[in-house]
Task: inverse folding
């Protein structure tokens, strides 16, 4: 399993892929950082990293399918999946190896973004605990998105289609909250309750405010696991019905 | 030992492999022979665990592929029809990765990778990116991958496709060489390959086993009369007359022009002893015999006989049959459509079409 993980991480850095996505990520992050600073005198909006996390995530979330689109779709297209289908590894191991590889690439991008709090710390004070909480929330929410992206990639043999499906899923993830708060859904309390349970945004909101709660942590981890298990089922199912 | 018992695979309702069983003993080279689309790759995918079977089992050293897939996969090296190589990786990195995936320990990895590269003569391209290599090289990289982890069994799906003639020879030699340490099952539709490296063949067609035996036995089974081929210098009518009148000659099947004054005859003889009488008679009549060989019916005949539909058929017969099959198919389609949307006129029309 480790061999597959290592190979996946390497393949991100062998192609310009990881670099381009990281650059875009940093661009998004720096733009919200700059706009945060420039709005500082207006005193209407207080500058805080939680806001930056919140803003940048709305753009960044659409980069995640670009990272995940190749994971399974490309292998299926070029018929390289036989190498791990015939190797003494299980499909859950493969799925988790690929997930951890994307997660690692993502973690590297987050480490790069530490540059901004460091710059801020030079001329002001950064509240460490709040920042850490924001980062944790950011990371957890991304894990859910990465898992969803991988699942979309397992559905098709076309990486572009996987990316498009991924984007659609990301829109759903982002707007589920808005949808829950819409008048229509609010009028049906039963439905709104269910949707609210699945809405990730409010939970991320809590994290970005510097509020850490165990239930949110469990929520993100269990959703990620559930999506990954679903991916395993999709791959197994396809193996049975191939032809 | 690999035991395949009543293996069946359906793709939807289409049967790809139907109830096949055979056993491969240790250190044996088994040729898996069949025309394109016969179910060779499907069977191999099932043996290696890439594809689950609809029913039936595969036992590798006593382990069932559906119950202990990991144990089975540890013992198998598989080279699929399309080598599973990552085009963006370097040859050496790829092989290192594959060795890791197969659970080769870190200390062993370098040695095994180098060994495999040497065997396949790809050491000189180890630093190159696989995507830039030619098809033959990619095939060899895939082959090297299959050897990693020193598996007891090697399953090779058309290992020589896309290689140039010298490489084909090399791969055949390699297979013979590997047979000392491994049990090999390899599929092909090239007959010469089977004759060159296998002891035993399984011939499969349309998802069913048509024959399973040693090559010698199979060749003997088509047998028939002994055929002799002679090259004789002399006047054609005279020579033909002499041959025909020799005792024990059943018929003169073919006469071909070879060079000026020399003709090649293919004759059916009743026994080997006829050769002597034939020779002495021809020489006595001043006809120079330049060459005399017995023509063995070979695996090719077996293959054609078994994979063509039940009886031997001429070209015309084959066409006729194809036409009939197509008609039947169309009738079946028409009736299926009929069942779906009954309009009688429609059915009549398609029936008419079928008759046409």
Result:
């Amino acid at each position: 399993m480790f061999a597959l993980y290592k190979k996946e991480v390497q393949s991100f850095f062998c192609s310009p892929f990881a670099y381009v996505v990281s650059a875009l990520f940093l661009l998004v992050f720096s733009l919200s950082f700059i706009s945060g600073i420039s709005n500082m005198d207006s005193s209407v909006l207080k500058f805080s990293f939680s806001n930056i996390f919140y803003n940048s995530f709305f753009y960044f979330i659409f980069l995640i399918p670009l990272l995940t689109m190749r994971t399974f779709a490309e292998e299926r297209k070029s018929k390289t999946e036989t190498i791990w289908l015939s190797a003494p590894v299980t499909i859950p191991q493969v799925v988790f190896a690929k997930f951890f590889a994307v997660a690692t690439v993502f973690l590297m991008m987050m480490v790069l973004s530490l540059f901004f709090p460091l710059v801020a710390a030079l001329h002001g004070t950064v509240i460490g605990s709040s920042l850490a909480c924001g980062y944790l929330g950011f990371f957890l929410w991304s894990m859910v998105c990465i898992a969803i992206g991988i699942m979309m990639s397992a559905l098709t043999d076309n990486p572009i289609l996987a990316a498009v499906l991924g984007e659609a899923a990301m829109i759903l993830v982002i707007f589920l909250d808005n949808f829950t708060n819409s008048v229509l859904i609010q009028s049906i309390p039963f439905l709104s309750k269910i949707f609210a349970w699945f809405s990730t945004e409010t939970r991320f909101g809590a994290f970005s405010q510097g509020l850490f709660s165990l239930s949110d942590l469990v929520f993100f981890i269990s959703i990620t696991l559930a999506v990954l298990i679903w991916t395993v089922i999709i791959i197994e199912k396809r193996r049975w019905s191939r032809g | 030992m690999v035991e395949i018992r009543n293996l069946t695979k359906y793709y939807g309702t289409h049967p790809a492999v139907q109830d096949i069983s055979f056993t491969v003993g240790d250190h044996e080279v088994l040729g898996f022979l069949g025309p394109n689309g016969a179910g060779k790759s499907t069977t191999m995918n099932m043996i290696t665990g890439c594809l689950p079977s609809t029913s039936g089992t595969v036992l590798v050293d006593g382990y069932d592929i559906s119950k202990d897939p990991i144990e089975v996969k540890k013992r198998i090296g598989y080279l699929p029809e399309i080598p599973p190589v990552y085009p963006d990786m370097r040859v050496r990195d790829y092989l290192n990765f594959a060795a890791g995936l197969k659970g080769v320990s870190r200390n062993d990895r370098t040695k095994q990778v180098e060994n495999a590269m040497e065997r396949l003569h790809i050491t000189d391209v180890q630093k190159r990116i696989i995507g830039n290599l030619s098809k033959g090289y990619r095939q060899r990289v895939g082959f090297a991958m299959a050897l990693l982890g020193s598996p007891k069994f090697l399953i090779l799906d058309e290992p020589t496709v896309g290689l140039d003639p010298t490489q084909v020879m090399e791969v055949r030699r390699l297979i013979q060489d590997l047979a000392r340490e491994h049990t090999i099952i390899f599929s092909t539709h090239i007959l010469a390959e089977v004759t060159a490296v296998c002891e035993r063949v399984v011939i499969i067609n349309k998802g069913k086993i048509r024959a399973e035996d040693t090559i010698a036995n199979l060749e003997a089974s088509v047998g028939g009369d002994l055929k002799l081929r002679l090259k004789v210098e002399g006047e054609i009518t005279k020579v033909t007359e002499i041959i025909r009148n020799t005792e024990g000659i059943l018929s003169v099947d073919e006469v071909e022009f070879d060079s000026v004054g020399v003709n090649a005859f293919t004759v059916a003889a009743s026994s080997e002893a006829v050769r002597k009488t034939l020779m002495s008679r021809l020489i006595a009549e001043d006809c120079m015999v330049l060459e005399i060989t017995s023509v063995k019916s070979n695996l090719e005949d077996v293959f054609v006989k078994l994979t063509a539909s039940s009886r031997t058929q001429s070209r015309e017969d084959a066409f006729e049959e194809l036409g009939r099959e197509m008609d039947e198919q169309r009738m079946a389609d028409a009736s299926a459509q009929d069942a779906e949307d009954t309009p009688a006129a429609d059915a009549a029309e398609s029936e008419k079409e079928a008759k046409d």
In short: The first strand of chain B starts at residue 2 and ends at 11. Chain B touches chain A at residues 9, 11-12, 14, 16, 42, 45, 48-52, 69-71, 73-74, 76, 78, 80, 82, 84-89, 93, 97-103, 145 (CB under 8 Å). Confidence is low (pLDDT under 50) at residues 310-314, 340-353 of chain B. Residues 122 and 317 of chain B are 49 Å apart (CA to CA).
